[in-house]
Write a structure and sequence with these properties.
The chain has one domain: P-loop containing nucleotide triphosphate hydrolases (Rossmann fold, 3-Layer(aba) Sandwich). The protein contains 7 helices and 10 strands. The C terminus is likely disordered.
Length: 267
């Protein structure tokens, strides 16, 4: 899947040069789950951005399925991101004026999927993460855990090969954290995803197959402890192969008067 060789990333800070990555070598196999830990500011998120084609290295090779992302034209990298890579972020990055369904649909717009097919696929994706009854709710009407479920549905609706998650539970309480990482684990197993998760949380990292540690821009590895079982149980449901999990009290949205607002998706 990925093979990185001698990857460096330098940033200019005034007259100084800051080395975010220093000669990173990394192989990530198909369907592998890799967790990346390390102190703040030591290159974790930079590495994830380079894996996802959101940034380019200053030097080195970023081989993704036989293509060097560092050498592709911007339009080609954009196409790789749109078709093959799903992203989940700590802050959810949902559009506040769009409904849950419209936020998920947005991931399909660059793929030129028809409006009808977008709506159908977004509804199925939301149902698979337990939000089949929240299609028309805007982010402000959803709890933090539910917003992250929408973000996961948006990342997976295009059926990517890779899921990249940057502190996906960083804004969640402990119980909701366990539910979200359990959901990600089920999706990883059921869909055969390659998953790279950046996290400060050792409880999450120990569930991965490998743990990489970034320090001073260099990547080293340690063996994880025995992973804990997922908190969400897989089952059969439509094309996703999953049934929506029950939502606990901590994950329920605040009460809202009247029907939720939402705008019609015309990204």
């Amino acid at each position: 899947m990925y093979k990185l060789s001698g990857v460096t990333k330098n940033y200019a800070k005034g007259r100084e040069k800051v080395a975010a990555l220093r000669g990173v070598d990394l192989v990530v196999e198909d369907a592998e789950w890799l967790a990346i830990q390390g102190p703040t500011g030591h290159g974790k998120s930079t590495l994830l951005q380079i894996l996802g084609g959101l940034d380019r290295p200053s030097a080195g090779i970023v081989d993704f399925d036989g293509r060097d992302l560092a050498q592709l034209r911007e339009a080609e990298v954009t196409r790789v991101r749109a078709t093959s890579v799903g992203f989940v972020f700590q802050t959810f990055n949902l559009i506040p004026t769009l409904s849950a369904q419209e936020n998920v649909e947005a991931a399909l717009v660059p793929l030129h999927v028809s409006a009808t097919a977008r709506r159908e696929r977004a509804a199925i994706a939301l149902d698979s993460v337990g939000l089949g009854d929240r299609l028309r709710h805007v982010p402000g009407e959803l709890s933090g855990g539910q917003q992250q479920r929408v973000a996961i549905a948006r990342a997976l609706v295009k059926e990517p090969k890779v899921l990249l998650a940057d502190e996906p539970t960083g804004n969640l309480d402990e119980d909701t954290r366990d539910e979200i990482i359990g959901l990600l684990e089920v999706m990883w197993r059921e869909r055969g995803l390659t998953m790279v998760v950046v996290t400060h949380d050792s409880t999450i990292a120990r569930r991965a197959q490998r743990i990489g540690v970034m320090k001073n821009g260099r990547l080293n590895f340690k063996q994880p402890a025995q992973a804990q079982p997922a908190q969400v149980q897989p089952a059969q449901a439509q094309s996703s192969g999953l049934q929506p999990p029950d939502l606990p009290a901590a994950d329920r949205p605040p009460a809202a008067d009247g029907p939720p607002a939402g705008s019609v998706l015309a990204d």
